[in-house]
Amino acid sequence: MAAHGTQHCETTTLGVLLRHEGIDLSEPMLFGLGSGLSFIYWDSKAMGFPFLGGRVKPFELTRNLAAVLGLELLVEETTSARKAWRNVAGPIDAGRPVGLQLDSYHLDYFSTKVHFGGHIVAMYGYDEQDAHLVDTAPQGGAVTTGLAALAGARAERGPMTARHRSFTLTAPCGPPSPRERIIPAIKTCADAFLHPPIANLGHRGIEKTAKQVPKWLERSADPGQDLPRAAVLMEKAGTGGALFRNLYRDFLAECAQLIDSDHLRTGHRLYAEAAALWTEVAELIAAAGESGDEKHLTRAGAVLHELSRVEREAMGALSRL
What we know:
- With 321 residues, the chain is α+β, with helices and mostly antiparallel strands.
- Helix content is 51%, strand content 14%.
- It has 2 domains: 9-33 and 72-170, Cathepsin B, Chain A (Alpha-Beta Complex); 179-319, no CATH class.
- It has helices spanning 9-20, 27-33, 60-69, 81-93, 147-155, 179-194, 202-212, 216-219, 223-235, 245-258, 262-291, 295-319; strands at 37-42, 51-55, 72-76, 98-102, 119-126, 130-134, 142-146, 166-170.
- Helix 1 (9-20) packs across helix 2 (27-33).
């Protein structure tokens, strides 16, 4: 039950579920076919510090991928812990792995204890004490957690949580060829990015971030902690680096080997540029937190302004596929 050195929780889980169905796709391909790339700048009075997101909301990627590949997605939710366990044990007893959405805070193997209710894992077995799971490579790949810890993680309520959500995927006879599904998935992603309904999403959200980031030292009660943490979330927290842009760059590279298109090559070249710029932004934000010097944030704002243009241009090319 290896996770193939994966980085992002939802695509790791989808890979496990699809390999059971005889479909073996790379993590970037799963991310791209699920139209996973996005951007959100999220801030509110209730939040200690703003949040930058680089992907669609939890579970949307799974729904997108199932629709694109014509898979049967069966989702179970319940308020009853007992029924929730039956929903998982049933398929596993029949030899089928199950996806779970839960709060990573409770899982025994998680080294950093933070509440994140949008975490997704694959479960493939259990015994009297433990559940056997597959998580991302940084979390250990094939891991175990106590059944009580698992129950706590599934029962948690709060932002991004789902009620004991579990899901299975079934492929139709004759696995689908992803190739003809690539262009529609890319265009879906590009259209959402280019025409966001509100100003804190898509390319407009990156432009908004360019204006807000220079004020982050004042925005934070504890910049020495908040800014480096924001940088880690962009680079490390299951994003595959560069706020998911590395994953999308690699997806476009894979597509360009399957489909001969100048628009694709342009999109790939620009996303390679964007990925490097996002890593630079994360480094500048961390440096500002560590030094308290706002010149790093001014520079980050300038790079973000450039990023808004680069990604808009990339998505413009991809929308013409």
